[in-house]
User: Which sequence fits this backbone?
């Protein structure tokens, strides 16, 4: 029995607890606080100007602690290497470094070919910059080195400044390969130095935020279009064709047309070699994806393909038997440093800046992804310096500009890489290959390297699916994606990037010129105000209009803000103002005519009002020729009585009615007496915005509507003060802490009663 009652008691208690919870939800809560305008809020909160710390002053302070902090900031290896856990991290970094080096070898050879340089310079670019980044970088997982997008940008510069046509010998048009390669190596190394100077300079002045102007859709569309350039540039190696060098707008289209035109001249052996190598690479990658949980490290498909292709080429003699083009001589050992040629800087300036920005954008985006995943921080300015030093020192040792590779970075992370030591280990393996093993790949077919490049484009090509997701999520971002992709395809990589950035920034400006303007209403029994067009339950407060813009107001949209305000209020303000001026001018002319006809003394005219154009009694137009002073005084007294009954607009000490009112002039009156401007979306104000706000106050007061502001942020208030916005007619008493404060004050002030200093809100 007792066992059967226990569950029932528990159910009863649960039911009671749920009932009590529902009752608590139904209870009415009240918030009681003073009704505050900005002046009262500053007094209550003891507001004082925020002290601005000039950061540049700290740059010139000299102390031992600051010197140590600067050393650790610009040489991060001194901070993390002493804390390196050999027992926990070394094995993972060793395995990861070996895996990355195995990928780095074929990609270095292939991407050098993509850059229009001898393959061995891809190995140099896989050693020097990687080791420099080990010392200065802050990301633990990105793999710095050759990258397809950077290589194709460098190749575009090589085709533009050192085309094959410039190195033809004699009448038989023989290409002087040695002279071309020497010139291109000089250009590429100088370009790398200039890219490094840009990146180091921008990093030293803390300009790492420049990458924020490259939105994610822009970067993804740009890399996708760059992958198309990479694919087209490899077609000549896949089919064994000799194509003309092209650069500039529409060069990609012309190259595709030339490939199609010369397709009958293709070398069948070269095409078969590329297809077989590509199929093998794809199969190995599919096998790695299927067995990744069971393998300690991915199968080195690229390395195995290179070794197998080199062996077959050497044994069968692909070059002699089938005309397959091979890599050729690969010198062993390191090359001596070479000074850049400053006279080339002028020609390379624009391309260098574009390559510097794109390379940093790719590196920092990948670095932040891995940092967020593993719980550490990547410093954008230091990353800019580290990448710049990698390119700067690499350029001195005849490397071309580098960034980080997405595929190698994923391998470095997935195989257990923990720190930058993995990158240092991979660079040491590459050093061994450069010094001892490089010459073994002399018989490697270039078609195999082209297959390596094309297969590794899978990740970037798959970004085309962004079109579908962006169509559903954000059409503006889709527009940026499409414009970036099309511009990069048609105008080449440098002009395409410039067009994409300009279009993206222009789109931001256009968005601020197409904001959402709304009239707000009160949600019943709350102090919350929402757009009456979106919330059917929100109701406008009778006699009060609350207007809000979704963006800040500045010179580009200030006029649009004023026009939309007048339109949403349902009152033709400009028409009322023009009609009022016309009627007042007519009254003034008639009064002067009557005074002239009746020869009224100037003293009597002065006693009727100090300002004839404003305080003119409309009954004066009906004055008969036997007008007397007593009748005039009687009419003024009666008009004054009417003003006390209906007018909250005149001062309390007014002795005569304001006959310039809309009602007295026979003009339609607005159906609201107060306008409240919700400034909660304002992040800054400029001089044009200040003038627009002053004009709004002036115009609406002319049509007998009082104007208040509400919910203004502290920086905006400071800018209003600095712009001398507040004066005798517009004070901080016209600015309220919230929209609800302004609404209650307007209603109480309109009733001409004492203003209740306490705000009670039913929540």
Assistant:
């Amino acid at each position: 029995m007792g066992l059967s009652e226990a569950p029932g008691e528990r159910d009863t208690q649960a039911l009671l607890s749920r009932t009590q919870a529902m009752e608590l939800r139904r209870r009415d809560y009240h918030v009681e606080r003073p009704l505050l305008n900005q002046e009262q809020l500053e007094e209550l909160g003891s507001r004082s100007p925020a002290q601005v710390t000039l950061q540049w002053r700290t740059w010139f302070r000299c102390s031992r602690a600051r010197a140590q902090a600067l050393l650790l900031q610009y040489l991060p290896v001194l901070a993390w290497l002493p804390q390196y856990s050999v027992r926990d991290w070394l094995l993972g970094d060793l395995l990861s470094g070996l895996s990355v080096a195995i990928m780095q070898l074929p990609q270095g050879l292939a991407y050098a070919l993509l850059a229009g340089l001898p393959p061995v310079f891809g190995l140099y670019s896989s050693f020097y910059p990687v080791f420099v980044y080990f010392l200065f970088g802050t990301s633990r997982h990105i793999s710095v080195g050759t990258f397809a997008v950077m290589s194709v940008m460098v190749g575009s510069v090589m085709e533009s400044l050192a085309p094959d046509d410039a190195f033809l010998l004699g009448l038989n048009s023989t290409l002087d390969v040695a002279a071309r390669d020497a010139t291109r190596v000089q250009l590429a190394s100088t370009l790398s130095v200039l890219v490094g100077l840009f990146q180091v300079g921008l990093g030293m002045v803390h300009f790492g935020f420049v990458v924020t102007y490259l939105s994610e859709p822009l970067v993804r569309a740009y890399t996708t279009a760059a992958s198309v350039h990479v694919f087209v540039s490899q077609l000549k190696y896949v089919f064994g064709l000799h194509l003309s060098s092209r650069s500039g707008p529409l060069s990609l289209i012309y190259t595709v047309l030339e490939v199609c035109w010369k397709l009958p001249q293709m070398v069948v052996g070269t095409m078969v070699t590329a297809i077989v190598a590509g199929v093998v690479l794809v199969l190995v990658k599919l096998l790695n994806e299927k067995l990744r949980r069971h393998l300690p490290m991915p199968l080195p498909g690229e390395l195995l393909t290179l070794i197998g292709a080199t062996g077959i080429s050497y044994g069968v003699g692909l070059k002699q038997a089938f005309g397959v083009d091979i890599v050729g001589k690969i010198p062993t050992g390191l090359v001596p440093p070479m000074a850049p040629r400053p006279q080339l800087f002028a020609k390379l300036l624009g391309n260098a800046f574009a390559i510097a920005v794109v390379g940093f954008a790719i590196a920092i985006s990948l670095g932040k992804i891995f940092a967020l995943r593993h719980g550490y921080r990547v410093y954008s300015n230091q990353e800019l310096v580290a990448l710049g030093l990698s390119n700067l020192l690499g350029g001195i040792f005849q490397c071309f500009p580098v960034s980080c590779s997405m595929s190698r970075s994923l391998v470095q992370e997935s195989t257990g890489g923990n720190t930058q030591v993995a990158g240092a280990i991979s660079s040491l393996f590459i050093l061994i290959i450069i010094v001892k093993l490089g010459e073994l790949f002399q018989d490697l077919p270039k078609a195999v390297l082209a297959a390596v490049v094309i297969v590794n484009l899978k990740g970037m090509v798959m970004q085309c699916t962004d079109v579908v997701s962006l169509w559903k999520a954000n059409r503006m971002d889709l527009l940026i994606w499409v414009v970036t992709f099309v511009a990069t395809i048609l105008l080449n990589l440098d002009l395409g990037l410039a067009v994409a950035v300009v279009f993206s920034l222009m789109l931001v400006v256009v968005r601020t010129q197409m904001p959402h303007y709304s009239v707000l209403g009160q949600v019943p029994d709350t102090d919350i105000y929402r757009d009456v067009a979106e919330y059917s339950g929100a109701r406008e407060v009778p006699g009060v209009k609350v207007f809000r813009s979704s963006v800040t107001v500045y010179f580009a949209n200030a006029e649009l803000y004023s026009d939309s305000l007048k339109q949403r209020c349902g009152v033709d303000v400009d028409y009322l103002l023009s009609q009022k001026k016309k009627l007042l001018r007519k009254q003034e002319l008639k009064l002067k005519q009557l005074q002239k006809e009746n020869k009224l003394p100037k003293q009597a005219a002065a006693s009727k009002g100090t300002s004839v154009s404003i305080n003119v009694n409309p009954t004066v137009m009906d004055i008969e020729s036997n007008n007397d002073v007593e009748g005039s005084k009687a009419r003024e007294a009666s008009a004054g009585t009417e003003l006390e009954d209906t007018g909250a607009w005149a001062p309390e000490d007014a002795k005569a009615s304001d006959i310039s009112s809309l009602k007295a002039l026979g003009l339609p009156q607005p159906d609201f007496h107060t306008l409240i401007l919700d400034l909660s979306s304002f992040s800054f104000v400029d001089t044009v915005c200040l003038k627009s706000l002053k004009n709004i106050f002036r115009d609406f007061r002319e049509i007998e509507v009082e104007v208040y502001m509400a919910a203004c942020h502290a920086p905006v208030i400071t800018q209003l003060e600095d712009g001398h916005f507040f004066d005798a007619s517009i004070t901080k008493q016209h600015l309220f802490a919230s929209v609800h404060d302004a609404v209650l004050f307007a209603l109480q002030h309109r009733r001409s009663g004492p203003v209740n200093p306490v705000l009670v809100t039913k929540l």
